[in-house]
Structure formats: C-alpha cells, structure tokens
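User: Could you go from structure to sequence for me? I need the amino acid at each position, not a summary. Structure tokens:
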C-alpha cells in the first residue's frame, strides 16, 4: 500500500486543491485551524493500519492484491459483511464516537459500482465494469482516501433534472469528446471531500430519457482543475480552539463541502455511467444499501459512547439508582442494541449478487436499522440531557478551572457524588455539552438525513419487503384459504 502511513497521507493533501472556508481560499487543508481537525481524524485510519495493536482489524491479506485496507475488502461471504460491521463499529469507538468515513464511503460506492456496471455491461455491451475494476485496483494499491458526491443541489424538488430552469442544478454532461467528457454542476454534503484523494460521483435518483445527460457516474482526483469545494463552517472544531476540554472538536471532526464541477474534464477510463438513464436508479439505490449498512454500524458505535456518557453522568450525579434515570439509560441501551441487532441480521441475511459474487446487505434489515437510527436519535439526546441536568448548558469553561481565583470555588461547588472530583465530573458534562451545542445542529441533522432521509428508507423498505408469506398467513387466518401455503 503506497499511502500507508500518516505522513504520506498528509503530504498527498498539499496538491493545489481548490478549497474555500468562510470566504477564504485555503492554502493547505492540513495546516488550516478548523479543517486540520478533519485531516487528523481521517489520518487515524492510516495510523491504525500501521499500529500492531490494530493492524489485524484495519488490514486484510487479499489473494489478488496482497495486503489492503480492510475497508476495501470486497464481501465474498456473509461473514465479510459481519466483519465490516465490526470494523466500522470499532473504529467509530476508537475515534471517540465519531465515524471515520474516509475509506468506508468510498468502498460502499465501489462495491455498488462493481455490481451495477456488471449488469449494465451485460445488457448494453458497455465496458464500464472493467473501468470500475481498474479504478478499484488503483485505489486499493495506493490505499487512497475517498469521498462520494451523490446528492445534487436539486433546485426545485418538484421538477426533474431536465425541467430545471437552470440546467446545472444536477451534475450533467455538457460535452462529449474522443478522450472523455466535460461535466458541470454541483453536489451537496460531500463528507470529507476537502481531505480526500479522490471524489466518486454518483447519480442521485432515477432518470427519464430526457434526463440522459444527468445519468452520470465518474471519479476524479480532488485537485482536478474545475473542482471547487466550499466547506461548511466547522463550529465544533472552532469551539474546540477556545476550549481544550472539547476534545472531539479538536481531533475528531468530519467536514462537508458543496462540491462544484466547473466544466471538469473526465477521461473515459474514469467514467462509469454516461447517459444510460435506465440504469441511473440501479446505481443510485445500490450505493445507499451499502452505505445504510455502514450507517447502522457507525451509529451503534456512537450510541455506545452515549450509553457510557449517560451512565457516568448518573453515577457522578449520584442518581444512578433513580427509576426515571434508569429508564433514560435503558432507552439509550435499547437504541444501541437495536442498531447492532439489525446490522448483524442484515449481514447474516445478506444476498449474493450472482453476476459478481459480491454479497449485499439485506435491504429490509438495513433500512429497518436505518429508520430506528433516524427516528429515535433526538429522543436519545433528550434522555441524555435528562440525566445530565442543567449544567450541560451552563457549565463554566475549562479556562475558568485554570484561573486560581475561580478554580477553588469550582472545585468546591461542582463536585457530585462523594468520591468524585469536580474536574472529572465537569469533563463528562463538557462532552455532553459538546454533543448538544457545538455539534448539536450537525448531529441532529445528520442522524435524521445522512445516508438518506427517513422517507427514502421508508420508500426502499416498502418496496423491498417480501409480502407473500405475510399475505398468505392473513388469508389463512381470515379463513379465505383452508391451509397455510408456506
């Protein structure tokens, strides 16, 4: 693996990429005060791959490619998906409860593209599969950091791509040439785009014949001419600059960008779909199936951290024996274990794609888990806040503990249950405060919308569920059929 240590990854990001932050062009994302946190978080993957303690988890000995990142191991048996769940779950815990997406999302996209392009080639005689396979080899052999741009900015949501007043509100082909295509448009929510090596672009929805120029999938290096990334304000990282107790914001942030393709040239070998509108939906749906499995894996890891926070808060506050507090903590435990259960079952009940042999997480259980995660997160935060109490909003800063005039009072008056000290208790409360304040908007929105909205999961679950056995049972129970058919 060429980029196998932290230094090589950091050096790879100083490549002239065009990134903007709060109205200014960023010279080097590694050295940027706020974006540097996203870099450090992504770099943990490379650190762990080189650490004997974690090497077995983070690397895999592939028969074809040798030692590769575990994230890029193609699921050949159901157990591979179970191992992938554990990989994502454990690295989320290792990242202080923050998902590390830098190779997970790209591998989700690559698995989906391998399956989809194999089917497209078999039906249309195209050569997309070999292109994806070649790109996959390049990624694996160089152990690259990837981001995925799927969600178009969309404009008027009631209109199809070709009906928009501005034709660039979905990414599209504006010119075809002998050596490649020119693309234009913008994608929203490109997680870790500014700190990735390559950007994989996927269609966001089903297309019609009139939308053919928008049925588009490709990959480009992050520093490609015409690619411009406007990062969202990293309020968690910015808050951490002023408060050393906000550890997550300083070390474990992931950024998102509005990614603009301003007449970007893509060579044909990097193009994986170009106008085959009938298959845009196949690509658009296959990727979220993998990525929602990734979602329930990392969200189980986040939930594990919330369980720990809740229990420590209860113990330090001296209320862990109170019935309403027990109920709060049990609700968080239920959330975590339901996510783990759906993840395990999605892997155990995985389906094998016959053409490629790649295993796909069970769509029903994946979307059930995703809906549990989406619909209940804000209630989980409510339970955590109930345990924490009002200091989650009014806690003095760590700077106040460093001022000797204040510290003697804080250490006296902010103690909790006998045997605990004020600083330890305050750090736990500070972590809770970080989740609900500087990360509050991000977590609340991401846990409801990331990896697809609630409605998207409902639609896929309704469409994917096998109803026949249930309908046969209902007919049998109602006396319409004399015996159960299955």
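Assistant: Here is the amino acid at each position, in order:
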């Amino acid at each position: 693996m060429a980029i196998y240590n932290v230094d090589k990854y950091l050096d790879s990001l100083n490549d002239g990429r065009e990134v903007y932050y709060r109205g200014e062009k960023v010279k080097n994302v590694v050295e940027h005060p706020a974006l540097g946190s996203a870099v450090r978080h992504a770099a943990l993957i490379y650190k762990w791959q080189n650490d004997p303690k974690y090497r077995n988890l983070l690397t895999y000995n592939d028969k074809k490619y040798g030692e590769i990142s575990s994230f890029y191991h193609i699921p050949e048996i159901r157990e591979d998906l179970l191992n992938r769940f554990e990989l994502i779950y454990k690295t989320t815990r290792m990242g202080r409860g923050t998902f590390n997406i830098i190779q997970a999302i790209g591998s989700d996209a690559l698995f989906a593209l391998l399956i989809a392009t194999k089917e497209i080639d078999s039906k249309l005689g195209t050569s997309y599969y070999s292109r994806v396979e070649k790109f996959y080899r390049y990624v694996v052999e160089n152990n690259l950091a990837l981001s995925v741009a799927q969600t178009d900015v969309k404009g008027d949501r009631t209109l199809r791509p070709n009906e928009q007043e501005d034709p660039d509100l979905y990414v599209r082909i504006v010119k075809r040439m002998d050596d490649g295509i020119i693309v234009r448009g913008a994608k929203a929510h490109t997680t870790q785009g500014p700190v990735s090596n390559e950007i994989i672009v996927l269609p966001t929805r089903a297309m019609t014949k009139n939308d053919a120029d928008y049925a588009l999938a490709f990959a480009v290096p992050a520093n490609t001419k015409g690619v411009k990334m406007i990062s969202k304000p990293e309020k968690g990282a910015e808050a951490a600059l002023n408060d050393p107790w906000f550890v997550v914001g300083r070390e474990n942030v992931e950024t998102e960008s509005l990614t603009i393709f301003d007449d970007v040239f893509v060579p044909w070998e990097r193009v994986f779909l170009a106008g085959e509108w009938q298959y845009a939906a196949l690509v658009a749906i296959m990727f979220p199936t993998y990525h929602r499995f990734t979602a329930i894996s990392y969200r189980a890891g986040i939930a594990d951290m919330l369980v720990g926070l809740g229990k420590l808060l209860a113990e330090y506050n001296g209320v862990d024996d109170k019935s309403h507090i027990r109920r709060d903590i049990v609700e968080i435990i239920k959330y975590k274990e339901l996510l783990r259960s759906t993840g395990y079952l999605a892997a155990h009940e995985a389906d094998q794609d016959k053409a490629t042999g790649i295993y796909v997480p069970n769509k029903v259980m994946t979307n059930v888990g995703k809906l549990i995660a989406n619909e209940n997160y804000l209630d989980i935060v409510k339970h955590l806040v109930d345990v924490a109490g009002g200091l989650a909003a009014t806690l003095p800063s760590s700077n106040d503990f460093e001022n000797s005039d204040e510290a003697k009072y804080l250490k006296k008056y902010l103690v909790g249950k006998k045997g605990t000290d004020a600083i330890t208790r305050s750090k736990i409360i500070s972590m809770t405060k970080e989740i609900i304040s500087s990360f509050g908007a991000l977590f609340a929105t991401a846990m409801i919308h990331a990896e697809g909205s609630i409605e998207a999961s409902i639609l896929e679950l309704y469409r994917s569920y096998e109803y026949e056995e249930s309908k046969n049972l209902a007919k049998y129970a109602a006396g319409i059929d004399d015996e159960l058919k299955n």
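One structural detail worth keeping in mind: The chain is about 50% helix and 15% strand.
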